[in-house]
Write a structure and sequence with these properties.
Elements (H helix, E strand, L loop, with lengths): L15 H12 L4 H5 L5 E4 L18 E13 L6 E7 L4 E6 L3 H6 L6 E6 L1 E4 L2 E5 L2 E4 H6 L6 E4 L4 H4 L4 H15 L9 H6 L5 H9 L4 H33 L10 H10 L6 H14 L6 E6 L5 H14 L3 E5 L3 H14 L7 E4 L5 H13 L4 E4 L13 E6 L7 H6 L9 E6 L5 H7 L4 E5 L10 E6 L3 H13 L3 E6 L6 H18 L7 E4 L5 H12 L5 E5 L11 E6 L7 H8 L10 E6 L5 H12 L3 H12 L7 H7 L11 H17 L9 H9 L13
Helix pairs in contact: 8-9, 9-24, 9-25, 10-12, 11-12, 21-22
Bound molecules: adenosine-5'-diphosphate (ADP) and magnesium ion.
The site of adenosine-5'-diphosphate has 17 residues, from helix 12.
């Protein structure tokens, strides 16, 4: 159904060819409908006028409005460096308004002695206020303009756009579009749904999101438009889920056999925690459900996810299937291989490893064993997903530290058998359940919320670089007690070379203070050859080295229970979840462990809060919450990507969790009644679903 809203935005008064191109390139706005869905992200109260004297540094860079008289103008510079200053004053103070372009046009509208309403971002320098390129309107003209509620939207923009279109410019073209389009807006939701969820009409919502008639109407408009987006996403996800359920009957794994039983009865190195038992039961239930399992396992660092992975793999093997486990790094894959080989030694079980660094013989052994069905468990890195890795009968896949993999990588494992295997993805990064569902499609979620017994909470301290001697004294003491120490340096892509230099310098000063032969210091980072990395990890694991100097490659998974100190250099450069992950490398044995956060003296407020939070709590879920607050939910763990992927302009799956739950329930009910959205009354829903279907690259739960 062609609609007026599908027309190109270039037909809107004030847009035209050139701006239409710019809008498409910068903001993805192609049609008039897209323009109307370009919602303000903030509103300012245009009835509020600030006295100049009241504008202080706290208001730096927020939009404010002043009412002031022009006292003079000045020109300076020439050519491209030209600038135009307008000096204004109100009863409380003075300010300078500055223009660097469009001068010819602006100077015409300025009259010395006249009073103006001026709207823009103040910047305060040495007590002097200035505004660059503010909006300016004579008091008379401003009075004639009608923004009923006084609230004016601030639109998302880009640098390129703002040089041709100010916020007011965007507002103007949206107004022009609205004047023409308002009568063409077709309701997308069935009436019954509007009533049930107490939603205002689409037309009212669009009107109020751009031109709020009151605070209450604006709130209602936001709620309605968020609901649309969340419903669209949920319709897509639920449809996908039922499709998956239908197409992918899961492998049936009813037997609890020889492998599982003998391991459980004879080889279990420790009693399982209650949480581990519960999760294994949840997995077992999926294995006999006739549906393919698609489960996310969240558990804090050190909570014992690997044991759950192993025992569930044994169940798959007992039922005649192969299992594989994919880890994000070489080191981690080798470690899993070592642990699992050791724990299953003596059982009638073949475990193989395959990584990018596998030598020819190891590779051949793995590939042949996997193809013939002789190998029961294959452990590796993303080398596992290469096409030449052909399983005889893959039934179960574990993906460790899943956030490290792209979705395509994970999805590829699905095609390793005619019928997709059961999939368990494990993560130590807690994400709210609702967000997980939006991000990863229709995953079921299990949580290990209990640490193995006997763990002493890790003590965390923050030292400034100036306290380095104190740190070294502490390290000497710990080594004297027979303990081992990690020293980790940040590695950030943009400044990789500098980071390696920091690590190199740090390493050299450590070996001066911890000289051979009394001390052994190993080093491990991404620029080393795989076998060298492996060798230094081995030295550390086997306690041939006292100190391991490393980049954040050791972040995930490395397990050395005798290591009790984690020193994190330039800790202010790490995010909270990464700091927490790193800290999780210690505290794995019975001894008291420590995490020392080293930082420079100069810290941003946020960095200080992060380090403080680390010192205060060991609880990963609390830190994740805090992280969300500090960074804004938009930035956490893929929320932002999910916003982009699912085309979300206004809804935020984390912050709007309640509305998401409503939308989800609603999607389930709608699809139960009309699974293909074929009914006429659901035409609008179908379009909504298409708009929010999400991109394939985030689509973990299905490959077509
Ligand atoms: P993560 O969940 O971070 O992957 P691991 O699986 O590496 O954690 O387990 C962390 C450590 O705890 C390992 O040394 C493991 O052997 C040990 N562990 C796991 N489960 C238990 C348990 N139930 N009791 C005691 N120790 C356990
Ligand atoms: Mg792990």
């Amino acid at each position: 159904m062609a609609s007026y809203l599908d027309n190109s935005v270039k037909f809107v008064a004030g847009v035209g060819e050139a701006r239409a191109k710019l809008l498409e390139k910068e903001l993805g706005i192609i049609t008039i409908g897209d323009l109307l869905r370009h919602y303000p992200f903030r509103y300012i109260d245009r009835t509020k006028i600030y006295p100049i004297a009241a504008i202080n540094e706290q208001l730096n860079s927020t939009m404010v409005q002043i009412r002031a008289k022009v006292t003079g103008v000045a020109y300076s510079g020439t050519g491209r460096k030209q600038r135009f200053s307008v000096f204004v004053a109100d009863a409380t103070g003075t300010a300078e308004l500055l223009w660097f372009n469009g001068i010819k046009w602006i100077e015409k509208s300025i009259e010395v002695g006249r009073e103006y309403i001026i709207f823009g971002k103040p910047s305060i320098f040495r007590g002097e206020m200035s505004m660059v390129h503010p909006e300016i309107e004579s008091v008379e003209k401003a009075a004639s303009r009608s923004v009923q509620s006084g609230m004016q939207g601030i639109y998302p923009s880009t640098e390129k756009i703002s040089s041709s279109l100010s916020n007011k410019g965007i507002y103007t073209i949206v107004s022009n579009a609205w004047a023409k389009a308002a009568d063409h807006i077709v309701e997308t939701l069935p009436q019954s749904l509007l009533r049930k969820h107490r939603l205002i009409s689409l037309r009212e919502a669009l009107h109020n999101i751009h031109f709020p008639q009151s605070e209450a109407m604006l709130a209602a408009a936001k709620r309605r438009l968020k609901f649309d987006e969340l419903l669209g996403v949920q319709l897509a996800i639920q449809a996908r889920r039922s499709d998956r359920m239908e197409r992918n009957t899961g492998f049936m794994m009813p037997r609890v056999g020889e492998n599982f039983n003998s391991f459980y009865n004879e080889r279990l190195p420790f009693p399982l925690t209650g949480a581990q038992k519960r999760v294994i039961k949840e997995i077992r239930k999926d294995m006999v459900s006739h549906h393919q399992m698609n489960r996310l396992l969240q558990g804090d660092v050190g909570s014992g996810k690997t044991m759950v992975a192993l025992m569930s793999m044994l169940l798959a093997i007992d039922n005649g299937y192969q299992a594989c486990m994919m880890a994000p790094t070489e080191i981690l894959a080798r470690q899993h291989f070592a642990t699992i080989s050791r724990q299953t030694a003596g059982m009638n079980l073949r475990v193989a490893i395959l990584t990018g660094a596998s030598k020819a013989a190891e590779r051949r052994k793995a590939l042949e064993g996997i193809a013939s069905g002789e190998v029961d468990i294959l452990i590796g890195t993303h080398a596992l997903i290469e096409d030449r890795v052909q399983f005889a009968n893959l039934g179960y896949v574990v993906i460790d530290e899943q956030h490290r993999f792209g979705v395509e990588q994970r999805a590829k494992l699905w095609t390793k058998n005619q019928q997709p295997p059961h999939i368990l993805v494990m993560t130590a990064t807690p994400i709210p359940r609702t967000l997980a569902m939006t991000l990863y499609g229709d995953l079921d979620v299990s949580v290990i919320d209990e640490l193995p017994p006997g763990r002493q909470p890790i003590r965390t301290y923050h030292y400034y670089d100036s306290a380095r001697l104190k740190l070294w004294g502490f390290m000497h003491k710990q080594i004297a007690l027979g303990r081992q120490i990690y020293v980790v340096y940040p590695l950030i892509k943009e400044s990789e070379n500098m980071d390696y230099k920091d690590l190199q310098d740090g390493f050299e000063s450590i070996i001066r203070d911890f000289p051979q032969p009394q001390y052994q210091v190993s080093v491990c980072h991404g620029q080393m050859k795989p076998q060298d990395k492996e060798e230094s990890m081995r030295q550390f694991k086997e306690h041939e080295a006292d100190i391991l100097v490393a980049t954040s490659v050791i972040e995930v998974g490395v397990d050395v229970p005798n290591a009790t100190v984690m020193v994190i250099e330039s800790a202010e450069r790490f995010g909270l979840s990464q700091l927490h992950q790193l800290r999780g490398r210690v505290g794995r044995g019975g001894e008291q462990s420590y995490c020392i956060l080293m930082s420079g003296e100069k810290l941003s407020k946020e960095a200080r809060q992060r380090l403080q939070a680390m010192c205060e709590t060991n609880d990963g879920f609390r830190l994740a919450e805090l992280d969300m607050k500090l960074r804004g939910a938009g930035d956490i763990n893929g929320t932002q990507q999910s916003g982009e992927a699912f085309n979300l302009a206004i809804a935020n799956p984390t912050l709007d969790a309640e509305l998401l739950a409503e939308a989800r329930q609603s999607a389930i009910e709608i699809l139960a009644d009309d699974s293909t959205l074929a009914k006429a009354e659901n035409a609008g829903l179908k379009a909504l679903r298409a708009r929010h279907a999400g991109m394939q690259r985030y689509d973990f739960s299905m490959i077509s």
